[in-house]
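Please go through this protein, sequence plus structure tokens, and consider how the sequence yields the tokens. Keep your notes short.
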Amino acid sequence: MPEVSQEDHDFGAEQHPKLLASFGGEYPGEKNAYVQRLGGKIAAAAGLEGQCTFTLVNSDVVNAFAVPGCYIYVTRGLMAIVTSEAELASVLGHEVGHIVARHSARQQNRSLWQALGVIVVSLAGSERLTQLASVAANFLGLRYSRTQEYEADDLGIRYVAAAGYDPYAAADMLAALGRHAEFLAASGGRDAARAMPEWASSHPLAGNRVERATETAQATQIAHDALPENEAAYLGQVDGLLYGDDPQQGFVMGRRFAHPVMRIGFEAPEGFTLTNSPQAIGLAGPGEVRGEFGGGELRGGNLEGYARQLVGEVIGDMPAHIGQPRSVTINGLPALIAPVDVQAEGGTMKLAIAVYDAGGGHAYHFVMVSPPAQVSLAAIDTLFGSFHLLGAADVARLKPRVIRVVTAGPGDSAASLAGRVADPNGRALFTALNGDIAVKPGARVKIVVAR
């Protein structure tokens, strides 16, 4: 029988609060309890009853992952796109499979905090710069091999069937990830490979994984639909689930960011993409231009002191030359802009820092980093000049979105229901949430509405 070692358990317990902080914390209420109950069933089927901790985290990123010690996390973003309890069980079963096969433990030597990091530029001596020079990919920095994925698929399908669920749901879940990738590509104007969800990024979706999962389910000799998928129970749980950005973390809308609680906003130039996280807003520009937007306490309106502390946090002990700061006023706010040349292992890096006094003892900042040849001063100045406070009307327009489960009426179709989806790409999102289904009267489907 498999067993979680004390060493692995201690490791997972130590990392658990850090992971929660980085993924927006536990999603509150019954939905988290539901994931815990379902996970408990899967763990028992795997011979790990009472040894695993399952958590639904408040992140819209489509992801699930396992940490040594059988700490398993699934995001609300992933919960939104699967369509049945059996599909969610297959996600949890797959992650338990990684634990049983000790895939995560084998990679434990790699720093847990490489998660902020596929390193794009070679920088040494500053963890913060490494983070800025990276595209946040998978939080744990783990990249499972195809062999490991197949093994976790096989184990997960076995656990799902042993727990009393349709083993064919694993293939349906993988297909749902593919639909979500197509939605991201359609809504972001990017190719599907770049738009793959985070789960697929760390768990490679080889072209034949859906077919292989079906074959593995067939090998159980359980007939398709002989075991339940529990769609109705699942839809009851997903109804009301927060979709997209959490207002407490602000809203990313294409190249725009707006925070209704902090009442601030900015817009990035063409060619930039934004990534929202509880810690900061990540910016990725053309080439290797990277950055972050964040904030902190401003003591005595001292922007220079705030900027000096920020530079120190960013560059650490690395040799650097700080240029002459410029005191300016941007959209009515006192601001300070400073260039910094950093001598990194891979050569000189250019930093540009802007800090703003937003009043009430609050400051906000941009930190942008790039190789010298890729600096676009005009683009960075445009970014810095876009920061502003939100008015009451701006805040009123920023409404969170939630999943609503609705019942199709006699005159409804996929097109008519998609028209009720609160998204510019409503039809693509409707398909991502429900599959390419023929809507019949009485069918229950997911849509996204403003709350």
In short: Residues 108-142, 189-197 have pLDDT under 50 and may be disordered. The chain has 16 helices and 20 strands.
